[in-house]
């Protein structure tokens, strides 16, 4: 089946939708003989619930995931078993800490006022074309860096400076995507010889590691001098983490701290900016939805405490991530062979790819209008939000490894959306091609170019 994959590669996500729709939500992909590229492709909620929740123990991230995502080291995204449990519990305690959440809200509000709005005002005044995706990526990079390291790289400024770190992360995401498809022996050989994407990945990781090493050593030095910080961040938290409570964490190791911080930076950066970019594009295609959101903001919103009243905005954001999940797929491998609820037998250490993108578009799961953008499907008759089970709406994952930043991400999406929609109108530049890049994060391949005007 490799030749058809190669032909369909530029539209691989939509190809998966067609295949899964035609094959009752499960499809066994056969790669080249002995290449180790066979996998079961699924968008079947019964299998997804089984893999991610009811038989979670049989589906660790496993050694192959760790190899493919080696740049994340021992951070939470690639960790398993007891280390993952310690990381999960400690992450949970900081992400749900009142002081951290307050810091997250105030940092977002201040970045919108001092970073986003001046750039939009400049685009209005000078009538220049703006790439919304680039702007949102800079925004979320600055915010995640503030929350994870306590350091603001100021990548979102009028000058739009080159951001070496962000470019390095883009390269690593692309290289990791291709590692899923290539025979292990091939990408390992490329890595060893130092050619192609593997060479780019190695070079870009040098930049990432240098930057993180500087940040970590200067924080250790400041803390050693007794400097007290006014707001919480992940780096300081882990340098001081209680190892009597979390026995497997290694706060003295710079490599360990690097892995923890880098994994969280990646988890938080491109996911939220991807959701924002697709959201504004969908709004530009659906002016009726934009008008309803605007009406809701005008009638129900006064200050950030009112964000939870914005039910239609929440519905439109959920609908965006149903159709364009920032993480389009998840990759799993059983420790022991078993039969899935669909009847498919999976061998131990075989590959299962859950297409989160296809799941959101399956007619048998979402109805005949599955491919339409309809925020109304998320609203109950009494006006409240309809909560879909996470194995059906999988954007934030499901089961014990559900996204730890979900509430934070939704808060950030709403803060940005409200301030922009209240103050500006956008026009999509005509003639540009809107398509997703084939990578681990669903970004737009050519960005999203717009012109901006101020609301009167
Ligand atoms: C729209 C934004 C976001 C989406 C759609 C999203 C989605 C996801 C998904 C699908 C996973 C599972 C990944 C896997 O198992 O391989 C995940 C895990 C995770 N996310 Fe998010 N995420 C978002 C934002 C954030 C933010 C802002 C943070 C942190 C502040 C965050 C922190 C995490 C962490 C720590 C995990 C690992 C959980 C674990 O393995 O136990 N995410 N996220």
Mean pLDDT score: 92
Biggest β-sheet: strands ordered side by side in the sheet: 1-2-7-4
Task: Give the structural class.
Answer: alpha+beta
Named CATH architecture: Orthogonal Bundle
* Extended strand count: 9
Domain module tally: 1
- Gap between N and C termini, in Å? 56 Å
Percentage beta strand: 5-15%
- What would the CATH topology be? Cytochrome p450
User: What shape does the CA trace take?
Assistant: globular
Give the H and E element order.
HHEEHHHHEHHHHHHHHEEEEHHHEE
Q: What does the main sheet amount to? A: 4 strands, mixed
Highest-level CATH class: Mainly Alpha
Catalogue the unreliable spans.
none
- Which cofactors or ions or other ligands sit in this model? protoporphyrin IX containing FE
How would you describe this structure to a colleague?
This protein has helices at 2-8, 12-22, 45-54, 62-68, 81-95, 98-126, 132-149, 164-181, 184-193, 196-224, 234-239, 254-285, 287-300, 311-323, 356-359, 363-366, 406-423, and strands spanning 26-29, 39-42, 130-131, 329-332, 338-339, 345-346, 352-355, 424-428, 449-454. The chain is α+β, with helices and mostly antiparallel strands. It has a single domain (2-454), classed as Cytochrome P450 (Cytochrome p450, Orthogonal Bundle). The strands form 3 sheets. The chain has a 4-stranded mixed beta sheet with strand order 1-2-7-4. Helix 8 packs across helix 10, helix 10 packs across helix 12 (254-285) and helix 12 (254-285) packs across helix 14. The longest helix has 32 residues, at 254-285. The protein is globular. The N and C termini lie far apart (56 Å). The structure holds protoporphyrin IX containing FE. Residues 76-77, 88, 91, 264, 267-268, 271-272, 275, 321, 326-327, 330, 395-397, 401, 403-405, 408-409 line the site of protoporphyrin IX containing FE.
